[in-house]
Amino acid sequence: MKHLRSIDELGVAGLHRLLDLSDHMAEINRRPVPKVPALRGKTVVSLFFEDSTRTRLSFETAAKRLSADTMTFSVSTSSVNKGESLRDTIETVAAMGVDAFVVRHKSSGVPWQISRWTDAAVVNAGDGWHEHPTQALLDCYTVRTALNRPEGFDGLHIAIVGDIKHSRVARSNVWAFAALGARVTLVAPHTLLPPSLEGWPVDVAHSIDDVVDRVDVLYMLRMQRERMHEALVPSLREYTSRFGLTPARADRLQAHTLVMHPGPMNRGVEMAVDPAELPGSVITQQVTNGVSVRMAVLFDLLGSGSGLAGEAS
Amino acid sequence: MSGQEPNSDHVVTPPVGGVFRIKAEVLGADDIRRAVTRIAHEILERNKGLDNVVLIGLQRGGVWLAKLLAETISRVEPGTNVPVGAVDVSMYRDDIGLRPVSPGAVTDIPVDLDGRVVVLVDDVLFTGRTVRAALDALNEYGRPRMVQLAVLIDRGHRELPIRPDFVGKNLPSSSDEDVRVTPDGVVIGHREPTGEVAS
């Protein structure tokens, strides 16, 4: 594997390989000294053109636990403010000797563009509404460990609830969950679904009440408040009453059902219950697993030598 | 992709592509059992019992061997129960990035290693680089009082100053040969690449 830009380019075999590798990384993270020398001498640069807390810190933690050197680039303090182009920025940083770029950008496709300008590996940490593959990987890993499904998700029913249209998390997760064998149901008002779902391996429900008592995983997306200006939902209260996880709905969840959320959470909007009081909530595990999964990605890209062997996927 | 299909009884598909052509069987299942029994006695003798001894198999080939060794020890010395663990060294190798790495199963160290006598167990001792990586990996779990090394086959060609304490069989080999170990026996042979895979 040379880059990780989308779940699609990873393939099913690659998905399983990274999830298996994440088990190793999780073991490292459970040790008293969670650090291995695997990527000594490698340099990983985080290029964040968009705000992020958990993803950026998660990648940095992952790189450091593998003994890679890390550099962080935040657009607000960079020469981008002096008008430097994306290409010049990349080529300048690459000239310092970089083995991997971790990129977040508001425009879809930027990771592909960057990989044409540098020999370094490129990891997509979120591009516009398009993809967020490491989020999908950590979500798959969370489901896999919490429901003990190392072989795959055959027979699992997963509902993804909320703003599908603007969500890169939803896009990556749909493909990853489906590739592992799960049945995926999208739950959203028409205005928050993409114009066409042709080719998506999903079915659609328009009320959370249709799925809440039968799914194995309830995946709540963040209701992006900035969407309110576009009048895609009548009001946040209306949204909560039809698509939010309320205490009444939480009572209808099956005992084994997992509740997941990619963060940051809007308490009182999509999450109208305290997740700490939900027995099925694995939201904290998602964050913990994020470090293990990103270690697996960085190791696979920089350390496994799989690129040398001619990747079979 | 895996290599081509086996086309006779003496050809198996190795994990890294190509085919493995068997030249000779070196040990049979009974020979392995006898060698393991002898090593079990030697471990007991050297350590004057089993106080603080823990067996750690190297993923993957050493793990079944460590378990077999532990079972044998508890037969030889009834009433004893030696802890068995497993260590995966792929994150500690010195050839990371030089060749494909496919980690074995996950490391599992069942006890605190501080002050213990660790017996590392592997199937084949070759360059010694895996053992070096294992010594580094063990450091993360504590400071053993002593580390000993038990191997079923020592085939020579060491590249580091590493010497086994317990050996099942010394097997002179040439460096382009390959040694395969399973519970059913030990064979020596050659790996032949399948054209597309460069060695």
Automatic annotation (TrEMBL), chain A:
Residue intervals of the Aspartate/ornithine carbamoyltransferase carbamoyl-P binding domain: 2-144
Pathway: Pyrimidine metabolism; UMP biosynthesis via de novo pathway; (S)-dihydroorotate from bicarbonate: step 2/3
Reactions catalysed according to its record: carbamoyl phosphate + L-aspartate = N-carbamoyl-L-aspartate + phosphate + H(+)
Residue span(s) of domain Aspartate/ornithine carbamoyltransferase Asp/Orn-binding: 154-298
Keyword line: Pyrimidine biosynthesis, Transferase
GO terms of biological process kind: 'de novo' pyrimidine nucleobase biosynthetic process; 'de novo' UMP biosynthetic process; amino acid metabolic process
GO-annotated molecular function: amino acid binding; aspartate carbamoyltransferase activity
Gene3D superfamilies linked: Aspartate/ornithine carbamoyltransferase (3.40.50.1370)
Keyword Methyltransferase tagged: no
InterPro entries registered for this protein in UniProt: Asp/Orn_carbamoyltranf_P-bd, Asp/Orn_carbamoylTrfase, Asp/Orn_carbamoylTrfase_sf, Asp_carbamoyltransf, Asp_carbamoyltransf_Asp/Orn-bd
GO cellular component: cytosol
Record EC number: 2.1.3.2
Pfam families per record: OTCace, OTCace_N
Keyword Plastid attached: no
Main function: Catalyzes the condensation of carbamoyl phosphate and aspartate to form carbamoyl aspartate and inorganic phosphate, the committed step in the de novo pyrimidine nucleotide biosynthesis pathway.
PANTHER family on file: ASPARTATE CARBAMOYLTRANSFERASE, ORNITHINE CARBAMOYLTRANSFERASE, MITOCHONDRIAL
Protein family membership: Belongs to the aspartate/ornithine carbamoyltransferase superfamily. ATCase family.
Protein name: aspartate carbamoyltransferase
Organism whose genome encodes this protein: freshwater metagenome
UniProtKB/TrEMBL annotation, chain B:
The entry's keywords: Transcription, Transcription regulation
Pfam families per record: Pribosyltran
Lineage of producing organism: unclassified sequences, metagenomes, ecological metagenomes
Keyword Transport: no
Designated name of the protein: Unannotated protein
Domain Phosphoribosyltransferase: 32-168
Gene3D superfamilies cross-referenced by the UniProt entry: 3.40.50.2020
Membership in a protein family: Belongs to the purine/pyrimidine phosphoribosyltransferase family. PyrR subfamily.
